């Protein structure tokens, strides 16, 4: 270590050059969610606590089903990006990689489960 | 040059020495609400799965979400959801290069806090 020059130590520690892609994805998904979230709250919200038949009837119609599906997909992809930033700020080393991968897998699993449920409800 | 002390150098001040301010609190609330929303998201996905599985499964999931515990979780989630949405709008405004004056930033922070409560009340009335 004592024989390393400052230049040698600094090399490779610069920008990863991929941050703008993450920022842009978060921006685009946030704009999409700005429209989806109010629609989701007011189409899905009233169904919580409603009779089972009403729930099936509502999500057999295209609009509520598409709104629910889009919100689940876009919302969880937005969460995937956000939780990665959270972990990068507070967790270090191998635990960082493990928790980022785990949370991304949780996001994917929730998307898969949500879409499966919506398809089964609609058909 | 290579043998300078790199161990015990003073570090720049970090959050622990600063007084909490409206801007810092509204910033960390954005992160907390956004990440905490995973809980209600998973509950809603479970509710959809149960609804698609049949009446018995639906009764269980719907019963949990409409219990007093579910009411607390969902009400807090709606508050967090509206807060995060408004805070996201604030970030979109900042991204255009506007609103960085302290007065404007604090005013928008206050708008997020008050707006989220107002939107939550509206949601609780209409949903």
Summarize the structure.
The complex is a heterodimer of chains A (123) and B (127). Chain A is mainly alpha-helical.
Task: Spell out the blueprint of helices and strands.
The complex is a heterodimer of chains A (123) and B (127).
Chain A: H1 6-10, H2 19-44, H3 52-60, H4 62-90, H5 94-122
Helix pairs in contact in A: 2-4, 4-5
Chain B: H1 22-53, H2 55-66, H3 68-95, H4 102-126
Key terms for this structure?
heterodimer; A: 123 residues; mainly alpha; 3 helical TM bundles of succinate and fumarate reductases; 5 helices; elongated; B: 127 residues; 4 helices
Q: How many alpha or pi helices of chain A?
A: 5
Write down the secondary-structure element order of chain B. Answer: HHHH
Q: How much strand of chain A?
A: under 5%
**How is the biggest beta sheet of chain B arranged?**
none
Domains counted in the coordinates of chain B: how many?
1
Briefly, what CATH class of chain B? Mainly Alpha
Can you say what the CATH homologous superfamily of chain A is?
Fumarate reductase/succinate dehydrogenase, transmembrane subunit
Which CATH class of chain A?
A: Mainly Alpha
- Broad shape of chain B: elongated
Q: Specify the number of helices of chain B.
A: 4
Report on the structure:
The complex is a heterodimer of chains A (123) and B (127). Chain A contains five helices and no strands. Chain A has helices spanning 6-10, 19-44, 52-60, 62-90, 94-122. Helices cover 80% and strands 0% of the residues of chain A. In chain B, 24% of the residues are buried. With 127 residues, chain B is mostly helical. Chain B is 76% helix and 0% strand. Chain B has four helices and no strands. Chains A and B meet through α2, α3, α4 and α5 of A and α1, α2 and α3 of B.
């Amino acid at each position: 270590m004592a024989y390393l020059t400052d230049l040698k130590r600094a090399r490779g520690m610069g920008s990863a050059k991929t941050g703008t892609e993450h920022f842009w994805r978060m921006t685009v998904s946030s704009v999409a969610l700005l429209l989806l979230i109010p629609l989701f709250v007011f189409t899905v919200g009233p169904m919580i606590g409603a009779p089972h038949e009403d729930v099936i009837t509502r999500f057999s119609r295209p609009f509520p089903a598409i709104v629910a599906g889009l919100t689940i997909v876009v919302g969880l992809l937005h969460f995937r990006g956000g939780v990665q930033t959270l972990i990068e700020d507070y967790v270090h080393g191998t635990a960082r990689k493990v928790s980022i991968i785990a949370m991304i897998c949780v996001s994917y699993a929730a998307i898969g489960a949500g879409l499966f449920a919506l398809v089964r409800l609609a058909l | 040059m290579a043998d300078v002390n790199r161990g015990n150098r003073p570090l720049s001040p970090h959050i622990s020495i600063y007084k909490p301010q409206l801007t810092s609190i509204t910033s960390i609330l954005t992160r907390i609400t956004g990440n905490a929303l995973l809980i209600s998201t998973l509950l809603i996905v479970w509710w959809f799965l149960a609804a698609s599985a049949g009446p018995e499964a639906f009764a269980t999931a719907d019963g949990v979400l409409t219990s007093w515990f579910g009411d607390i979780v969902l009400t807090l989630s709606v508050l967090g959801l509206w807060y995060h949405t408004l805070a996201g709008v604030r970030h979109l405004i900042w991204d255009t290069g506007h609103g960085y004056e302290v007065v404007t930033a604090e005013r928008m922070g206050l708008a997020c806090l008050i707006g989220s409560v107002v939107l939550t009340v509206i949601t609780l009335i209409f949903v």
